[in-house]
Amino acid sequence: MITPVDLVLILIRGSLYVLVSASLALLFGIISVASFMHGDLAMLGGYISYFLLVSSGLDPILALVITGVLMFLVGCTIEKALLLPLRRTSGKLWMFNTFVLTLGISQALQNGALAVFGPIFYGVKSLWAGELSILGVSVSIDRLAILILSITIIAALWAFLKYTRIGRAILATGMNEEAASLYGVNVNNIYTLTFGISALLSGVAGVFYMALFTTYPLMGVTYNLKAWIVVLIAGLGNVKGAIYCSFLLAFIEVIATKTLAAGWQNVLPVIFVVLVLLFKPTGIFGTEVKGIWEK
Amino acid sequence: MGEIKISKRKTLLYIILALLALILPLIFRNEYIYSVLISIILWAAISSSFDLTAGFIKVTNFGYAGFFAAGAYTSGLLALYYGVSPWIGLMLGTIVASALAAATGFLTLRLHGIFAAAFSWFIAETLKYTLAALTDITRGYHGLACSPFFPGISRLPYYYMILFVYIAELIIMMRIINGKMGFAFKVIGEDETAARTIGVNVTFYRVLCFVISCAFAGFLGVFYAHYYNVITPDVSSLSVTVPALAICYVGGRGSIWGSLPSAAIILMIFELLRPYEAIGVISFAHKYIVYGILLIIVMIWVQGGLAGAIKKLTEKYVKTTS
Fold first, then answer.
1. Which bin fits A186, alpha (ψ -120 to 50), beta or left (φ > 0)?
2. What is the pTM for the complete model shown?
Protein backbone atom coordinates (compact mmCIF):
# COMPACT_ATOMS: atom_id res chain seq x y z
CA MET A 1 0.00 0.00 0.00
CA ILE A 2 1.46 3.34 -1.02
CA THR A 3 0.97 6.04 1.57
CA PRO A 4 1.33 9.78 0.90
CA VAL A 5 4.74 9.59 2.60
CA ASP A 6 5.91 7.08 0.01
CA LEU A 7 4.53 9.21 -2.78
CA VAL A 8 6.47 12.25 -1.62
CA LEU A 9 9.59 10.09 -1.16
CA ILE A 10 9.26 8.70 -4.67
CA LEU A 11 8.82 12.14 -6.20
CA ILE A 12 11.85 13.57 -4.44
CA ARG A 13 14.09 10.57 -5.02
CA GLY A 14 13.09 10.53 -8.66
CA SER A 15 13.83 14.20 -9.07
CA LEU A 16 17.34 13.52 -7.76
CA TYR A 17 17.95 10.87 -10.41
CA VAL A 18 16.30 12.65 -13.26
CA LEU A 19 19.07 15.10 -14.16
CA VAL A 20 21.97 12.64 -14.23
CA SER A 21 19.92 10.04 -16.09
CA ALA A 22 18.63 12.53 -18.64
CA SER A 23 22.13 13.82 -19.28
CA LEU A 24 23.45 10.28 -19.73
CA ALA A 25 20.59 9.44 -22.08
CA LEU A 26 21.24 12.64 -24.04
CA LEU A 27 24.82 11.56 -24.65
CA PHE A 28 23.71 8.11 -25.81
CA GLY A 29 21.03 9.48 -28.07
CA ILE A 30 22.85 12.35 -29.69
CA ILE A 31 26.56 11.58 -29.82
CA SER A 32 26.67 7.84 -28.96
CA VAL A 33 28.92 8.32 -25.96
CA ALA A 34 28.62 5.66 -23.26
CA SER A 35 29.74 7.76 -20.35
CA PHE A 36 31.00 6.18 -17.18
CA MET A 37 31.85 9.48 -15.53
CA HIS A 38 28.51 11.16 -14.96
CA GLY A 39 28.45 10.38 -11.26
CA ASP A 40 31.88 11.94 -10.99
CA LEU A 41 30.75 15.05 -12.83
CA ALA A 42 28.02 15.31 -10.19
CA MET A 43 30.71 14.98 -7.53
CA LEU A 44 32.65 17.82 -9.13
CA GLY A 45 29.52 19.98 -9.23
CA GLY A 46 28.93 19.24 -5.56
CA TYR A 47 32.42 20.39 -4.59
CA ILE A 48 32.23 23.56 -6.68
CA SER A 49 28.90 24.56 -5.20
CA TYR A 50 30.07 23.72 -1.68
CA PHE A 51 32.97 26.12 -1.96
CA LEU A 52 30.79 28.76 -3.58
CA LEU A 53 28.17 28.47 -0.87
CA VAL A 54 30.40 28.15 2.16
CA SER A 55 33.46 30.21 1.41
CA SER A 56 31.85 33.04 -0.53
CA GLY A 57 28.40 32.81 1.01
CA LEU A 58 26.58 33.19 -2.30
CA ASP A 59 22.85 33.01 -2.76
CA PRO A 60 21.92 29.37 -3.53
CA ILE A 61 20.37 30.19 -6.89
CA LEU A 62 23.41 32.20 -7.93
CA ALA A 63 25.70 29.38 -6.79
CA LEU A 64 23.62 26.94 -8.81
CA VAL A 65 23.96 29.06 -11.93
CA ILE A 66 27.71 29.56 -11.50
CA THR A 67 28.20 25.84 -10.87
CA GLY A 68 26.21 25.10 -14.01
CA VAL A 69 28.31 27.47 -16.11
CA LEU A 70 31.58 26.10 -14.72
CA MET A 71 30.47 22.51 -15.28
CA PHE A 72 29.46 23.40 -18.84
CA LEU A 73 33.00 24.66 -19.41
CA VAL A 74 34.46 21.54 -17.77
CA GLY A 75 32.36 19.36 -20.07
CA CYS A 76 33.40 21.31 -23.18
CA THR A 77 37.05 21.10 -22.17
CA ILE A 78 36.88 17.35 -21.60
CA GLU A 79 35.19 16.87 -24.96
CA LYS A 80 37.67 19.03 -26.89
CA ALA A 81 40.74 17.72 -25.09
CA LEU A 82 39.99 14.01 -24.75
CA LEU A 83 36.98 12.85 -26.74
CA LEU A 84 37.78 14.73 -29.94
CA PRO A 85 41.19 13.07 -30.42
CA LEU A 86 39.59 9.72 -29.60
CA ARG A 87 36.94 10.30 -32.24
CA ARG A 88 39.60 10.83 -34.87
CA THR A 89 41.13 7.43 -34.25
CA SER A 90 38.21 5.14 -33.45
CA GLY A 91 35.78 4.24 -36.14
CA LYS A 92 33.41 1.38 -35.49
CA LEU A 93 34.44 0.95 -31.88
CA TRP A 94 33.66 4.54 -30.92
CA MET A 95 31.06 3.77 -28.27
CA PHE A 96 33.19 1.11 -26.59
CA ASN A 97 36.20 3.36 -26.65
CA THR A 98 34.29 6.18 -24.99
CA PHE A 99 33.16 3.70 -22.35
CA VAL A 100 36.76 2.81 -21.50
CA LEU A 101 38.06 6.35 -21.83
CA THR A 102 35.41 7.79 -19.51
CA LEU A 103 36.15 4.97 -17.07
CA GLY A 104 39.74 6.23 -17.06
CA ILE A 105 38.61 9.82 -16.54
CA SER A 106 36.28 8.66 -13.78
CA GLN A 107 39.14 6.89 -11.96
CA ALA A 108 41.33 9.97 -12.30
CA LEU A 109 38.56 12.28 -11.03
CA GLN A 110 37.57 10.06 -8.10
CA ASN A 111 41.07 9.51 -6.86
CA GLY A 112 42.08 13.06 -7.68
CA ALA A 113 39.25 14.30 -5.48
CA LEU A 114 40.28 11.84 -2.77
CA ALA A 115 43.82 13.20 -2.91
CA VAL A 116 42.82 16.87 -2.96
CA PHE A 117 39.82 16.96 -0.63
CA GLY A 118 40.55 13.87 1.44
CA PRO A 119 38.08 11.22 2.58
CA ILE A 120 35.85 13.85 4.17
CA PHE A 121 32.15 14.43 3.65
CA TYR A 122 31.31 17.97 2.59
CA GLY A 123 27.80 19.24 3.04
CA VAL A 124 25.70 22.23 3.99
CA LYS A 125 22.90 22.31 6.52
CA SER A 126 20.38 23.49 3.98
CA LEU A 127 20.01 25.78 1.01
CA TRP A 128 16.78 27.25 2.25
CA ALA A 129 15.73 26.58 5.83
CA GLY A 130 12.19 25.62 6.85
CA GLU A 131 9.59 23.07 5.93
CA LEU A 132 6.12 22.81 4.45
CA SER A 133 3.28 20.37 4.84
CA ILE A 134 2.00 18.60 1.73
CA LEU A 135 -0.68 15.87 1.84
CA GLY A 136 -0.15 15.84 5.57
CA VAL A 137 3.54 15.06 5.12
CA SER A 138 6.04 17.59 6.29
CA VAL A 139 8.68 18.23 3.62
CA SER A 140 11.67 20.53 3.90
CA ILE A 141 11.70 23.48 1.54
CA ASP A 142 15.00 22.22 0.13
CA ARG A 143 13.46 19.02 -1.10
CA LEU A 144 10.50 20.81 -2.57
CA ALA A 145 12.75 23.37 -4.26
CA ILE A 146 14.89 20.58 -5.68
CA LEU A 147 11.84 18.82 -7.07
CA ILE A 148 10.61 22.03 -8.70
CA LEU A 149 14.06 23.04 -9.95
CA SER A 150 14.70 19.60 -11.47
CA ILE A 151 11.42 19.67 -13.33
CA THR A 152 12.04 23.24 -14.47
CA ILE A 153 15.51 22.40 -15.75
CA ILE A 154 14.23 19.37 -17.63
CA ALA A 155 11.44 21.48 -19.14
CA ALA A 156 13.98 24.11 -20.12
CA LEU A 157 16.14 21.44 -21.75
CA TRP A 158 13.12 20.19 -23.67
CA ALA A 159 12.24 23.69 -24.85
CA PHE A 160 15.85 24.35 -25.81
CA LEU A 161 16.05 21.18 -27.89
CA LYS A 162 12.70 21.70 -29.57
CA TYR A 163 12.43 25.40 -30.19
CA THR A 164 15.88 26.88 -30.71
CA ARG A 165 18.04 26.63 -33.80
CA ILE A 166 20.96 25.13 -31.89
CA GLY A 167 18.68 22.67 -30.12
CA ARG A 168 17.24 21.51 -33.41
CA ALA A 169 20.75 21.18 -34.82
CA ILE A 170 21.59 18.93 -31.85
CA LEU A 171 18.54 16.76 -32.45
CA ALA A 172 19.29 16.62 -36.16
CA THR A 173 22.84 15.46 -35.44
CA GLY A 174 21.42 12.75 -33.22
CA MET A 175 19.16 11.54 -36.01
CA ASN A 176 21.67 11.56 -38.82
CA GLU A 177 25.11 13.02 -38.48
CA GLU A 178 26.00 13.07 -42.14
CA ALA A 179 22.75 14.65 -43.25
CA ALA A 180 23.07 17.28 -40.53
CA SER A 181 26.57 18.17 -41.63
CA LEU A 182 25.35 18.41 -45.23
CA TYR A 183 22.80 20.97 -44.08
CA GLY A 184 25.59 23.08 -42.65
CA VAL A 185 25.65 21.92 -39.03
CA ASN A 186 29.14 21.94 -37.55
CA VAL A 187 29.08 18.45 -36.07
CA ASN A 188 32.25 18.91 -34.02
CA ASN A 189 30.74 21.88 -32.23
CA ILE A 190 27.52 19.96 -31.64
CA TYR A 191 29.50 17.18 -29.95
CA THR A 192 31.20 19.69 -27.68
CA LEU A 193 27.97 21.50 -26.93
CA THR A 194 26.07 18.30 -26.14
CA PHE A 195 28.79 17.10 -23.83
CA GLY A 196 28.85 20.51 -22.16
CA ILE A 197 25.08 20.48 -21.60
CA SER A 198 25.28 16.97 -20.25
CA ALA A 199 28.05 17.96 -17.82
CA LEU A 200 25.99 20.97 -16.79
CA LEU A 201 22.96 18.82 -15.93
CA SER A 202 25.08 16.37 -13.94
CA GLY A 203 26.84 19.19 -12.14
CA VAL A 204 23.53 20.73 -11.12
CA ALA A 205 22.39 17.31 -9.87
CA GLY A 206 25.60 17.25 -7.83
CA VAL A 207 24.57 20.51 -6.15
CA PHE A 208 21.30 18.86 -5.12
CA TYR A 209 23.07 15.80 -3.70
CA MET A 210 25.37 18.10 -1.80
CA ALA A 211 22.44 20.05 -0.41
CA LEU A 212 20.39 17.02 0.68
CA PHE A 213 23.16 14.60 1.60
CA THR A 214 26.90 15.21 1.28
CA THR A 215 29.62 15.29 -1.33
CA TYR A 216 32.49 12.82 -1.07
CA PRO A 217 35.10 11.57 -3.54
CA LEU A 218 33.53 8.19 -4.31
CA MET A 219 29.89 9.32 -4.54
CA GLY A 220 30.19 9.03 -8.30
CA VAL A 221 30.15 5.23 -8.08
CA THR A 222 26.63 5.14 -6.65
CA TYR A 223 25.10 7.80 -8.87
CA ASN A 224 26.78 6.43 -11.96
CA LEU A 225 25.24 3.04 -11.26
CA LYS A 226 21.81 4.60 -10.71
CA ALA A 227 22.00 6.61 -13.91
CA TRP A 228 22.96 3.49 -15.83
CA ILE A 229 20.11 1.54 -14.26
CA VAL A 230 17.65 4.21 -15.37
CA VAL A 231 19.08 4.52 -18.86
CA LEU A 232 19.14 0.77 -19.44
CA ILE A 233 15.57 0.39 -18.21
CA ALA A 234 14.40 3.24 -20.40
CA GLY A 235 16.38 2.18 -23.44
CA LEU A 236 19.68 3.73 -24.44
CA GLY A 237 19.36 7.22 -25.81
CA ASN A 238 15.75 7.73 -24.85
CA VAL A 239 15.74 11.01 -22.91
CA LYS A 240 11.99 11.08 -22.37
CA GLY A 241 12.01 7.49 -21.17
CA ALA A 242 14.88 8.25 -18.83
CA ILE A 243 12.79 10.95 -17.18
CA TYR A 244 9.91 8.54 -16.50
CA CYS A 245 12.23 5.74 -15.47
CA SER A 246 13.98 7.90 -12.88
CA PHE A 247 10.69 7.94 -11.03
CA LEU A 248 10.21 4.23 -11.71
CA LEU A 249 13.60 3.51 -10.12
CA ALA A 250 12.65 5.71 -7.17
CA PHE A 251 9.40 3.74 -6.89
CA ILE A 252 11.24 0.40 -6.93
CA GLU A 253 13.71 1.60 -4.35
CA VAL A 254 11.10 2.98 -2.00
CA ILE A 255 9.02 -0.20 -2.21
CA ALA A 256 12.13 -2.37 -1.75
CA THR A 257 13.24 -0.42 1.30
CA LYS A 258 9.77 -0.75 2.74
CA THR A 259 9.22 -4.45 2.17
CA LEU A 260 12.62 -6.18 2.03
CA ALA A 261 15.18 -6.90 4.72
CA ALA A 262 18.18 -4.62 5.00
CA GLY A 263 20.75 -5.16 2.28
CA TRP A 264 18.31 -6.55 -0.27
CA GLN A 265 17.01 -3.18 -1.50
CA ASN A 266 20.15 -2.82 -3.61
CA VAL A 267 19.57 -6.18 -5.28
CA LEU A 268 16.09 -5.48 -6.61
CA PRO A 269 16.87 -2.62 -9.06
CA VAL A 270 19.88 -4.47 -10.47
CA ILE A 271 17.87 -7.65 -11.00
CA PHE A 272 15.19 -5.54 -12.64
CA VAL A 273 17.76 -4.23 -15.12
CA VAL A 274 18.96 -7.75 -15.86
CA LEU A 275 15.37 -8.81 -16.55
CA VAL A 276 14.70 -5.81 -18.79
CA LEU A 277 17.86 -6.50 -20.78
CA LEU A 278 16.86 -10.15 -21.06
CA PHE A 279 13.36 -9.68 -22.33
CA LYS A 280 13.44 -6.27 -23.94
CA PRO A 281 16.99 -5.11 -24.60
CA THR A 282 15.74 -1.91 -26.19
CA GLY A 283 14.26 -0.83 -22.88
CA ILE A 284 10.68 -0.74 -21.69
CA PHE A 285 9.94 2.27 -23.85
CA GLY A 286 11.28 0.57 -26.95
CA THR A 287 13.65 3.22 -28.19
CA GLU A 288 13.31 4.25 -31.76
CA VAL A 289 16.81 5.68 -31.85
CA LYS A 290 18.28 3.61 -34.61
CA GLY A 291 21.69 2.17 -34.88
CA ILE A 292 23.47 4.07 -32.15
CA TRP A 293 24.99 0.95 -30.66
CA GLU A 294 26.16 -0.35 -33.97
CA LYS A 295 28.36 2.63 -34.50
CA MET B 1 47.45 -6.89 -33.79
CA GLY B 2 46.47 -10.48 -33.51
CA GLU B 3 49.40 -11.70 -35.58
CA ILE B 4 51.08 -14.00 -33.11
CA LYS B 5 53.46 -16.46 -34.66
CA ILE B 6 55.94 -18.48 -32.69
CA SER B 7 59.31 -18.70 -34.39
CA LYS B 8 62.30 -20.70 -33.13
CA ARG B 9 64.11 -17.63 -31.88
CA LYS B 10 61.02 -16.53 -29.98
CA THR B 11 60.60 -19.97 -28.43
CA LEU B 12 64.18 -19.72 -27.14
CA LEU B 13 63.39 -16.28 -25.71
CA TYR B 14 60.32 -17.66 -23.93
CA ILE B 15 62.29 -20.54 -22.47
CA ILE B 16 64.99 -18.19 -21.20
CA LEU B 17 62.34 -15.92 -19.67
CA ALA B 18 60.62 -18.87 -18.00
CA LEU B 19 63.93 -20.15 -16.58
CA LEU B 20 64.70 -16.65 -15.32
CA ALA B 21 61.32 -16.56 -13.60
CA LEU B 22 62.06 -19.96 -12.06
CA ILE B 23 65.38 -18.94 -10.50
CA LEU B 24 64.37 -15.37 -9.64
CA PRO B 25 63.09 -16.19 -6.13
CA LEU B 26 66.27 -18.15 -5.44
CA ILE B 27 68.32 -15.00 -6.07
CA PHE B 28 66.16 -12.74 -3.93
CA ARG B 29 65.36 -14.70 -0.81
CA ASN B 30 62.86 -12.24 0.54
CA GLU B 31 59.15 -12.66 1.35
CA TYR B 32 58.40 -9.09 0.27
CA ILE B 33 59.91 -9.68 -3.17
CA TYR B 34 57.86 -12.88 -3.43
CA SER B 35 54.64 -11.04 -2.67
CA VAL B 36 55.36 -8.38 -5.30
CA LEU B 37 56.24 -11.03 -7.89
CA ILE B 38 53.11 -13.02 -7.09
CA SER B 39 50.85 -10.01 -7.50
CA ILE B 40 52.54 -9.05 -10.77
CA ILE B 41 52.04 -12.53 -12.23
CA LEU B 42 48.52 -12.83 -10.81
CA TRP B 43 47.42 -9.54 -12.40
CA ALA B 44 49.20 -10.38 -15.64
CA ALA B 45 47.29 -13.68 -15.73
CA ILE B 46 43.99 -11.94 -14.94
CA SER B 47 44.53 -9.32 -17.63
CA SER B 48 45.59 -11.88 -20.24
CA SER B 49 42.33 -13.72 -19.77
CA PHE B 50 40.48 -10.38 -19.93
CA ASP B 51 42.33 -9.74 -23.17
CA LEU B 52 40.82 -12.81 -24.79
CA THR B 53 37.43 -11.12 -25.06
CA ALA B 54 38.58 -7.49 -25.19
CA GLY B 55 41.24 -8.03 -27.81
CA PHE B 56 39.74 -10.70 -30.05
CA ILE B 57 35.95 -10.68 -30.16
CA LYS B 58 36.04 -7.00 -29.10
CA VAL B 59 33.69 -7.36 -26.14
CA THR B 60 34.98 -5.43 -23.15
CA ASN B 61 33.74 -7.66 -20.37
CA PHE B 62 32.65 -5.18 -17.74
CA GLY B 63 31.40 -7.98 -15.53
CA TYR B 64 34.73 -9.78 -15.42
CA ALA B 65 34.83 -9.40 -11.64
CA GLY B 66 31.55 -11.28 -11.35
CA PHE B 67 33.08 -14.47 -12.73
CA PHE B 68 36.21 -13.92 -10.68
CA ALA B 69 34.02 -13.66 -7.58
CA ALA B 70 31.95 -16.70 -8.61
CA GLY B 71 35.11 -18.81 -8.55
CA ALA B 72 36.44 -17.25 -5.36
CA TYR B 73 33.21 -17.59 -3.40
CA THR B 74 32.43 -21.11 -4.64
CA SER B 75 35.72 -22.43 -3.39
CA GLY B 76 35.76 -20.27 -0.27
CA LEU B 77 32.27 -21.32 0.83
CA LEU B 78 32.84 -25.00 0.05
CA ALA B 79 36.09 -24.96 2.01
CA LEU B 80 34.46 -23.27 4.97
CA TYR B 81 31.24 -25.29 5.22
CA TYR B 82 32.18 -28.68 3.78
CA GLY B 83 35.93 -28.69 4.30
CA VAL B 84 36.55 -29.13 0.59
CA SER B 85 40.24 -28.83 -0.22
CA PRO B 86 41.17 -25.68 -2.16
CA TRP B 87 42.73 -27.90 -4.82
CA ILE B 88 39.30 -29.37 -5.57
CA GLY B 89 37.95 -25.86 -5.16
CA LEU B 90 40.11 -24.76 -8.07
CA MET B 91 38.25 -27.18 -10.29
CA LEU B 92 34.79 -26.52 -8.89
CA GLY B 93 35.30 -22.74 -8.92
CA THR B 94 36.31 -22.87 -12.55
CA ILE B 95 33.28 -24.99 -13.39
CA VAL B 96 30.85 -22.65 -11.63
CA ALA B 97 32.40 -19.58 -13.24
CA SER B 98 32.25 -21.20 -16.68
CA ALA B 99 28.64 -22.26 -16.18
CA LEU B 100 27.70 -18.73 -15.17
CA ALA B 101 29.65 -17.41 -18.14
CA ALA B 102 27.92 -19.82 -20.51
CA ALA B 103 24.50 -18.73 -19.24
CA THR B 104 25.44 -15.04 -19.40
CA GLY B 105 27.08 -15.49 -22.77
CA PHE B 106 24.06 -17.13 -24.36
CA LEU B 107 21.84 -14.39 -23.02
CA THR B 108 24.07 -11.38 -23.73
CA LEU B 109 26.17 -12.10 -26.73
CA ARG B 110 23.22 -12.06 -29.06
CA LEU B 111 23.06 -8.45 -27.91
CA HIS B 112 25.59 -6.10 -29.33
CA GLY B 113 28.57 -4.22 -28.02
CA ILE B 114 27.52 -1.95 -25.26
CA PHE B 115 24.51 -4.06 -24.22
CA ALA B 116 26.70 -7.11 -23.67
CA ALA B 117 29.13 -5.05 -21.59
CA ALA B 118 26.33 -3.49 -19.54
CA PHE B 119 24.59 -6.82 -19.06
CA SER B 120 27.62 -8.61 -17.69
CA TRP B 121 28.39 -5.56 -15.54
CA PHE B 122 24.93 -5.84 -14.01
CA ILE B 123 25.35 -9.59 -13.49
CA ALA B 124 28.47 -8.77 -11.47
CA GLU B 125 26.63 -6.06 -9.54
CA THR B 126 23.76 -8.43 -8.77
CA LEU B 127 26.25 -10.99 -7.49
CA LYS B 128 28.00 -8.37 -5.38
CA TYR B 129 24.84 -7.08 -3.72
CA THR B 130 23.54 -10.62 -3.21
CA LEU B 131 26.79 -11.71 -1.59
CA ALA B 132 26.71 -8.61 0.58
CA ALA B 133 23.10 -9.23 1.59
CA LEU B 134 23.59 -12.92 2.46
CA THR B 135 25.44 -12.02 5.62
CA ASP B 136 24.50 -15.29 7.37
CA ILE B 137 26.34 -17.34 4.78
CA THR B 138 29.04 -15.16 3.30
CA ARG B 139 29.59 -12.85 6.27
CA GLY B 140 29.12 -9.92 3.86
CA TYR B 141 31.66 -7.15 4.20
CA HIS B 142 33.24 -8.73 7.25
CA GLY B 143 34.95 -10.97 4.75
CA LEU B 144 34.98 -14.71 4.22
CA ALA B 145 38.03 -16.48 5.59
CA CYS B 146 39.54 -18.97 3.14
CA SER B 147 41.96 -21.74 4.05
CA PRO B 148 45.43 -21.53 2.46
CA PHE B 149 46.73 -23.88 -0.24
CA PHE B 150 50.01 -24.63 1.47
CA PRO B 151 50.88 -25.01 5.14
CA GLY B 152 53.46 -22.65 6.53
CA ILE B 153 53.86 -18.92 6.11
CA SER B 154 56.28 -18.75 3.18
CA ARG B 155 54.90 -17.37 -0.06
CA LEU B 156 57.41 -19.28 -2.17
CA PRO B 157 55.11 -22.21 -3.07
CA TYR B 158 52.45 -19.70 -4.16
CA TYR B 159 54.99 -18.07 -6.43
CA TYR B 160 55.73 -21.32 -8.22
CA MET B 161 52.06 -22.18 -8.35
CA ILE B 162 50.98 -18.91 -9.98
CA LEU B 163 53.99 -19.01 -12.29
CA PHE B 164 52.98 -22.48 -13.45
CA VAL B 165 49.36 -21.34 -13.84
CA TYR B 166 50.41 -18.30 -15.86
CA ILE B 167 52.70 -20.26 -18.18
CA ALA B 168 50.00 -22.89 -18.69
CA GLU B 169 47.48 -20.13 -19.41
CA LEU B 170 49.78 -18.53 -21.97
CA ILE B 171 50.39 -21.85 -23.71
CA ILE B 172 46.67 -22.64 -23.83
CA MET B 173 45.84 -19.18 -25.15
CA MET B 174 48.56 -19.25 -27.80
CA ARG B 175 47.26 -22.63 -28.96
CA ILE B 176 43.72 -21.26 -29.13
CA ILE B 177 44.72 -18.10 -30.93
CA ASN B 178 46.91 -19.78 -33.50
CA GLY B 179 44.31 -22.45 -34.18
CA LYS B 180 41.04 -22.48 -36.03
CA MET B 181 39.21 -21.12 -33.02
CA GLY B 182 41.49 -18.09 -32.82
CA PHE B 183 40.92 -17.38 -36.48
CA ALA B 184 37.19 -17.37 -35.88
CA PHE B 185 37.60 -15.02 -32.89
CA LYS B 186 39.72 -12.59 -34.90
CA VAL B 187 37.34 -12.52 -37.84
CA ILE B 188 34.37 -11.92 -35.58
CA GLY B 189 36.23 -9.06 -33.92
CA GLU B 190 37.16 -7.47 -37.22
CA ASP B 191 33.91 -7.81 -39.08
CA GLU B 192 30.95 -9.82 -37.94
CA THR B 193 29.14 -9.80 -41.25
CA ALA B 194 32.23 -11.05 -43.03
CA ALA B 195 32.56 -13.81 -40.45
CA ARG B 196 28.98 -14.90 -41.13
CA THR B 197 29.59 -14.81 -44.84
CA ILE B 198 32.52 -17.21 -44.66
CA GLY B 199 30.47 -19.58 -42.55
CA VAL B 200 31.67 -18.88 -39.01
CA ASN B 201 29.03 -19.61 -36.38
CA VAL B 202 29.26 -16.17 -34.78
CA THR B 203 27.16 -16.72 -31.66
CA PHE B 204 28.82 -20.04 -30.85
CA TYR B 205 32.35 -18.66 -31.11
CA ARG B 206 31.51 -15.48 -29.24
CA VAL B 207 30.08 -17.50 -26.35
CA LEU B 208 33.01 -19.92 -26.48
CA CYS B 209 35.52 -17.08 -26.27
CA PHE B 210 33.59 -15.53 -23.38
CA VAL B 211 33.42 -18.84 -21.51
CA ILE B 212 37.14 -19.57 -21.90
CA SER B 213 38.01 -16.10 -20.66
CA CYS B 214 35.65 -16.42 -17.68
CA ALA B 215 36.86 -19.93 -16.84
CA PHE B 216 40.33 -18.45 -16.33
CA ALA B 217 38.71 -15.69 -14.30
CA GLY B 218 37.10 -18.27 -12.00
CA PHE B 219 40.32 -20.24 -11.64
CA LEU B 220 42.32 -17.13 -10.77
CA GLY B 221 39.54 -16.08 -8.41
CA VAL B 222 40.02 -19.30 -6.45
CA PHE B 223 43.77 -18.67 -6.33
CA TYR B 224 43.13 -15.12 -5.14
CA ALA B 225 40.78 -16.30 -2.39
CA HIS B 226 43.14 -18.91 -0.98
CA TYR B 227 46.25 -16.81 -1.42
CA TYR B 228 44.98 -13.69 0.34
CA ASN B 229 42.87 -15.89 2.65
CA VAL B 230 40.02 -13.41 2.80
CA ILE B 231 37.43 -12.22 0.30
CA THR B 232 34.70 -9.59 0.49
CA PRO B 233 31.83 -8.93 -1.94
CA ASP B 234 34.08 -6.26 -3.44
CA VAL B 235 35.88 -8.95 -5.46
CA SER B 236 32.76 -8.75 -7.63
CA SER B 237 33.00 -5.00 -8.12
CA LEU B 238 34.83 -2.59 -10.36
CA SER B 239 37.82 -2.74 -8.01
CA VAL B 240 38.78 -5.97 -9.78
CA THR B 241 37.49 -5.12 -13.24
CA VAL B 242 39.23 -1.74 -13.45
CA PRO B 243 42.79 -2.99 -12.79
CA ALA B 244 42.20 -5.97 -15.09
CA LEU B 245 40.92 -3.69 -17.84
CA ALA B 246 43.59 -1.02 -17.34
CA ILE B 247 46.48 -3.51 -17.32
CA CYS B 248 45.07 -5.24 -20.38
CA TYR B 249 44.60 -2.00 -22.35
CA VAL B 250 47.99 -0.62 -21.30
CA GLY B 251 49.63 -3.89 -22.28
CA GLY B 252 47.94 -3.82 -25.63
CA ARG B 253 44.67 -5.41 -26.66
CA GLY B 254 44.98 -8.59 -28.62
CA SER B 255 48.57 -9.27 -27.64
CA ILE B 256 48.04 -11.60 -24.62
CA TRP B 257 51.69 -11.23 -23.53
CA GLY B 258 51.46 -7.43 -23.20
CA SER B 259 49.81 -7.80 -19.80
CA LEU B 260 53.04 -9.01 -18.17
CA PRO B 261 55.24 -5.95 -18.79
CA SER B 262 52.23 -3.71 -18.18
CA ALA B 263 51.39 -5.38 -14.83
CA ALA B 264 55.07 -5.28 -13.88
CA ILE B 265 55.39 -1.57 -14.63
CA ILE B 266 52.13 -0.52 -12.97
CA LEU B 267 52.60 -2.62 -9.82
CA MET B 268 56.25 -1.54 -9.58
CA ILE B 269 55.13 2.09 -9.65
CA PHE B 270 52.77 1.28 -6.78
CA GLU B 271 55.52 -0.43 -4.82
CA LEU B 272 57.91 2.45 -5.41
CA LEU B 273 55.29 4.87 -4.13
CA ARG B 274 54.69 2.83 -0.99
CA PRO B 275 57.43 4.38 1.22
CA TYR B 276 56.04 7.84 0.51
CA GLU B 277 52.61 6.60 1.45
CA ALA B 278 53.91 5.43 4.82
CA ILE B 279 55.30 8.86 5.69
CA GLY B 280 52.12 10.55 4.47
CA VAL B 281 53.53 12.44 1.49
CA ILE B 282 51.00 10.82 -0.78
CA SER B 283 47.79 9.04 0.00
CA PHE B 284 46.40 5.71 -1.09
CA ALA B 285 44.36 7.57 -3.71
CA HIS B 286 47.35 8.73 -5.72
CA LYS B 287 48.07 5.18 -6.69
CA TYR B 288 44.78 4.62 -8.40
CA ILE B 289 45.05 7.83 -10.37
CA VAL B 290 47.76 5.91 -12.22
CA TYR B 291 45.12 3.57 -13.68
CA GLY B 292 42.96 6.49 -14.75
CA ILE B 293 45.74 8.48 -16.35
CA LEU B 294 47.26 5.47 -18.09
CA LEU B 295 43.86 4.51 -19.47
CA ILE B 296 43.33 8.03 -20.83
CA ILE B 297 46.79 8.07 -22.42
CA VAL B 298 46.38 4.63 -23.92
CA MET B 299 42.92 5.31 -25.30
CA ILE B 300 43.87 8.58 -26.95
CA TRP B 301 47.48 8.35 -28.01
CA VAL B 302 48.66 4.75 -28.02
CA GLN B 303 45.67 2.57 -28.78
CA GLY B 304 47.92 -0.45 -29.36
CA GLY B 305 49.29 -0.18 -25.83
CA LEU B 306 52.77 -1.40 -24.93
CA ALA B 307 52.66 -4.32 -27.36
CA GLY B 308 51.56 -2.06 -30.19
CA ALA B 309 54.27 0.49 -29.43
CA ILE B 310 56.96 -2.19 -29.30
CA LYS B 311 55.74 -3.67 -32.56
CA LYS B 312 55.84 -0.28 -34.23
CA LEU B 313 59.35 0.37 -32.94
CA THR B 314 60.70 -2.98 -34.10
CA GLU B 315 59.11 -2.50 -37.51
CA LYS B 316 60.76 0.88 -37.82
CA TYR B 317 64.09 -0.60 -36.73
CA VAL B 318 63.83 -3.45 -39.18
CA LYS B 319 62.98 -1.05 -41.98
CA THR B 320 65.90 1.26 -41.31
CA THR B 321 68.43 -1.55 -41.00
CA SER B 322 67.43 -3.58 -44.03
1. beta
2. 0.86
